[in-house]
Amino acid sequence: MITLSEENYLKAIYHLGKQGAAAVSTNAIAEKIESKASSVTDMVKKLADKNLAHYIKYQGVSLTNDGRLAAALVVRKHRLWEVFLVEKLNFSWDEVHDVAEQLEHIKSQKLVNELDAFLGFPTHDPHGDPIPDKDGNYAPIKSVNILELEIGSEGVLSLVKDSSDVFLKYLNKNNLALGDVIKVLDFEPFDDSVTIQTKNKQIIISKEVAKNLYLSQ
Amino acid sequence: MITLSEENYLKAIYHLGKQGAAAVSTNAIAEKIESKASSVTDMVKKLADKNLAHYIKYQGVSLTNDGRLAAALVVRKHRLWEVFLVEKLNFSWDEVHDVAEQLEHIKSQKLVNELDAFLGFPTHDPHGDPIPDKDGNYAPIKSVNILELEIGSEGVLSLVKDSSDVFLKYLNKNNLALGDVIKVLDFEPFDDSVTIQTKNKQIIISKEVAKNLYLSQ
DNA sequence: ATATATTTTTAGACAAGTCTAAAAATTATA
DNA sequence: TATAATTTTTAGACTTGTCTAAAAATATAT
Ligand SMILES: [Mn+2]
Ligand SMILES: [Mn+2]
Ligand SMILES: [Mn+2]
Ligand SMILES: [Mn+2]
């Protein structure tokens, strides 16, 4: 049995492991999970004892196959619940995260799979993140960050990397939503801001914002 | 903030308080919650400290208004989730309890109220139990136990008091479900068993079974 | 290569929730 | 009403998950 706390650590390691090196550092986990390095060390030992993580003192952590599957299944639940909240319960995309953080820990195979079916087997959550299947797999992400595009190129906004409500409210305020067609008009060398066009309107977005927007096609 | 454990104790006291005396005994709570009397004593002190329960040493426990509302809201969530699982996710009535035990602790006002609306403001759960509203109130139960009826009287099965999967599977096996029209044909004095008719079929049910079946109209 | 800064681990403490065993209070019985 | 049985509480211990402060290891900079 994997506890709620263990699940949160597995998920943190899973996410940190994606965007970076093979081994994840104690401090990185502590920051992500808003705890302290010493707590992470303790927990990581437990995960290693349960064969969910590889751990070498001072060398960082990585997930075993079992650990990665367990983490992916938590992420699967998180994202399916987010879809449920938005599609069925009138939540907006900036309201779902905290509730999904609770719902992702509910233990019931049948519940997850029936929920998946009820939602029509969605492939992405309301923020464009892919939903792992029961084996923890998902289709590779094909969208590319705005900063890597050429001037004049166009695409559909299909993933926002930051799912914090502050960022999502910013997007709401600027009338930007998943599915919008966006055209890159200019890159400003001074501050790396980007001018984009969407819905016949031009707006300038900062580098920090651009870093979180991914277009496809 | 009320913890998960505190919610479970509140619920136990709430349920025990209904079908009996004003003050609930330590042992009764321990049995219901499958813990030990000493654990109950500890927890009950905490509930009293938080003004959720009235507690006098050796004299038992009862809920304050705050405690009763908190308990009713947990019960509300439990029953709404049971309806969701049966109506939307193809669970049968003997599969919902354990999952609802987890879901009832999810904290989100919006979630509960949107779920309620999504389900069409149901008044009863899949076992016929009433669903409290946001103020913890529900319409008084008007159904009456089979053992209290006269021979020849007829009614609709509208509440099963025992929601354990063993009992519900027994009902499934005997093709008895909520909404069935049932007629009382005979009471056997020897063992208090009851002969009933439903769907043009006669069956004999034991006293233990009859105690859990409530008919309305 | 050595000294300094940073990261990570260890040691020890604490809160929540639980348990067993013993003591105290209440209730039942003779 | 005195004694026995039962219930409830207390005392002390244990687990999980967390923290702070100090020690140890690793990384960085001269
Ligand atoms: Mn999320
Ligand atoms: Mn998301
Ligand atoms: Mn139930
Ligand atoms: Mn029920």
From TrEMBL, chains A, B:
User: What SUPFAM superfamilies does the annotation carry?
Assistant: Iron-dependent repressor protein, dimerization domain, Winged helix' DNA-binding domain
Which Pfam families did the record assign? Fe_dep_repr_C, Fe_dep_repress, FeoA
Q: Where is the HTH dtxR-type domain?
A: 1-64
Q: Which UniProt keywords apply?
A: Activator, Cytoplasm, DNA-binding, Manganese, Repressor, Transcription, Transcription regulation
Superkingdom field: Bacteria
Q: Does the keyword rRNA-binding apply?
A: no
Q: Where in the cell is it found?
A: Cytoplasm
Q: What is its main location?
A: cytoplasm
Q: Per the similarity annotation, which family is this?
A: Belongs to the DtxR/MntR family.
Function, in words: In the presence of manganese, represses expression of mntH and mntS. Up-regulates expression of mntP.
Record note on quaternary structure? Homodimer.
Name this polypeptide is given: Transcriptional regulator MntR
Organism for this UniProt entry: Mariniflexile gromovii
